[in-house]
Amino acid sequence: MKINVVKLTIRKAASLMEQHAFSSYDLTKECLNRIEAMNQKGPALQAVLEVNPGALDAARRLDQERAEGTVRSLLHGIPLLLKDNIATGDDMHTSAGSFALRESFASRDAFLVRRLREAGAVFVGKANMTEWANFISYTMPDGFSARGGRVKNYFHLDFPVGGSSSGCAVGVAAGFALAAIGTETSGSIIKPSVHSSLIGLKPSMGLVSRSGIIPISRTQDTAGPMAKTAEDAAILLDIMAGSDSEDPAAVSADVWKERRAAHPFDCQKEHCRIGVLSQFFAHLEPSHKSLITKALQRFEESGHQIIEVGNFAPYENIYDENTPDYLGEEVLLYEFREGLESYLQNWTREKTFLTLKELIQYNELHREQAIPYGQEVFYRAEAAAERGYDAIYQKARARDYRVCVTCGLEKALQENKLDLLAFPHFYGCTVPARAGWPALTLPVGMDLLQGPTALTLVGNQYDDWRLLQMASVLERLLN
Fold it and tell me: Cis peptide leading into 137, omega within 30 of 0?
């Protein structure tokens, strides 16, 4: 049987393997063949930094388990990609795309990787990314890393790819894996998913553990699934989410997973109240605006209610006139060094670098190879940690909550009695990222000149599964 990995979903692959239409080895081999043909050769998409030398052996073992009557989960034998800032305690490097960490191995699997392995996932490789999750330079283009070059869009080499989980998105679109795990601080799952026409979920803060992920921010970082359908994203979230004592934000994840079962969303009977923030439509390309408008009309014709939401306060109050710096960045600058140094000291085998200062010095010595776009953000993060930004940091965190939650998402959802908010394209990145609320991309079509576009749907905090269920209902109306 010829395997069309570009179209194949996790759910369909699990069913076909159960019917013995093909094996995990066959499926994994097909993904590796496509990487061989298209990653550095052919269109040279540069979406994968390295393949897993143990992928086919893992697939064989899982096939043997299946033959003996053991199927671990719907992910049993499913090939996945991992972003290169997620630790794996195997023969793959974990480098955040950097030249400095190109030979660095993690000492053990990240929490989410361990859960996925136990569920039977096969990791085919590490995905390229905007280096250091786009937290090293202000001029680095999306999808570029010193280690792997620049990721190109599968649909058209000139289309944008978004950052920083660029390789994950392009890899799934190109059939290098059936799904991928990306990470986001602010837009790094959402934007690439839009540009590769995927369902990308940035989960609520604390549902998915961050232990073993090269960090930027303890208050905004999260990992999340990037998949072809909302159902596939839900399958991944079910396995990834869970309480982890190593991540203070994730200690209650099991509680939220249990509570979701008490409030099911009946996809056959219920309709959504969707709040539309059309103040952002003016910024869209006309072709993308037309695709989004048609999708909303289709939802309304099918019984879902479209409610116009007035001016969305967070975007009018994103700057503080009394503080010269962008407050959201101050939070990240303040938190970065401590988190990075904790990773270097506790998660790397070699202990080559233990501090941000050592990385900065190494990059300066190898400037041409390591930092072709500079490292201004590293300088600022080091300076922020040295001087101390306690007052600015506390003010920024309080402001984020007030603007993004109290006066933003919470206010808009509650006052309008909404199930979710719909932003055009990826304008819904910043606010849910700072608030720690879930956001999800819903592809609505593609323009031949401008590329794919999507709606970004935002739901209530810790209501990620209901958001996925509603997205599944809506995506069926568009297919």
Answer: no
